[in-house]
Amino acid sequence: MATATESGSAPPVDGEVRQRGRPRGSGRGRGRGRGRGRERSQSARRSKRPRKPRPWRSASPPALEPLVPLPPGTEVEVRIDDDGFHGTWFEATVLDFAPARGYRNPARYTVKYVHLLADDEGALSEPFAPSQIRPRPPPLSSPPRFQLHDIVEAFHNEGWWSGIVVSAPDATGAGVTVSFPITREVIEFPSSLVRPRRDYVAGDWIPSRAAMVLRPNRAVKVYEVGEKVEVLRNRDVYGNSWFPATVRVVIDDLSYVVEYFDLEEGKGGSEKATEYLHWWFIRPAVEHSPSKREFQLRPGAAVEAYCDGAWSLGVVTRVVGEDEYEVGIIGKKTRLLVTKVVELLKPQYIWNGNQWRITTAKS
């Protein structure tokens, strides 16, 4: 699952839902598993130099105490926090456990994946810290009855990915539609491939109160219902653009359901479009008043230009006339030049989750 910034695609706001492919065990599913396996096995063969620490920590408590080893053959799930995986759980089997031998040699499990394969099509095995391993969740006592905005995990790309329900099954027997806040995908799954998200705490399984598995080490702003915000989307013509929206539902302190001001559901629909998003794609709706030392509207200035309902990122290329400027905007496929009056331009700022930083002028 590629993130929106990786794929460069805008999220769907027209109500179109992508269907889940064949269920696990099919040839198509195994193909996706092999792709993931290659990606993981290649990273496992890289140099053993220490990795740069990631600015993330897990939202869930440690799945297992480090000193409680599981015997070989135990069926488990392992959490992958690498880029592109976002704390997704993958089914595996314990092969071995190595206890800690000093600070430089912490305790490690070796596991074999159930669905992911190595480059040679054989079983893919990798080491994991005890905090990234948990037993497989036990079956539920009765089939779940999913409700709107329930926090769930859906079996997709051979792992259990965290999201929320945006459309629950009805009498027609339709599947469960799940939205993923980081990849910005909306996919319909058979009910059998969706489960309530639960955390394993001190030997018990409890309903999870957070959809986001990984958390930033720094504090980020928590939005409230009804708060005015702006949402980043990538448009074909105008590239990265900030759309006005309102927070409608707080799922947890890192993800939200927002309602767009001017975008509508479906073609010719009357309801405002909504989207479930990670905080990465949201910023407060504020007006900045930088000093002349910080910002001057002249060629090379980094600006945001109001284009078709949203603020698009650009750079002033030249002065056209009095209070009128030409701005270069990078779209998905080409660079666009637009002419804007000063009222439709504002300084370009970067929001890191808790503070603003003005973008420096381009030389």
UniProtKB/TrEMBL annotation:
Pfam families: Agenet (PF05641). Residues 56-67 have a biased composition (Low complexity). InterPro entries: Agenet-like_dom (IPR008395), Agenet_dom_plant (IPR014002). Residues 1-74 are annotated as: Disordered. Residues 20-35, 43-55 have a biased composition (Basic residues). Residues 68-141, 144-202, 221-290 form the Agenet domain. SMART domains: Agenet. It comes from the Eukaryota. This is DUF724 domain-containing protein 2. It comes from Zea mays (Maize).
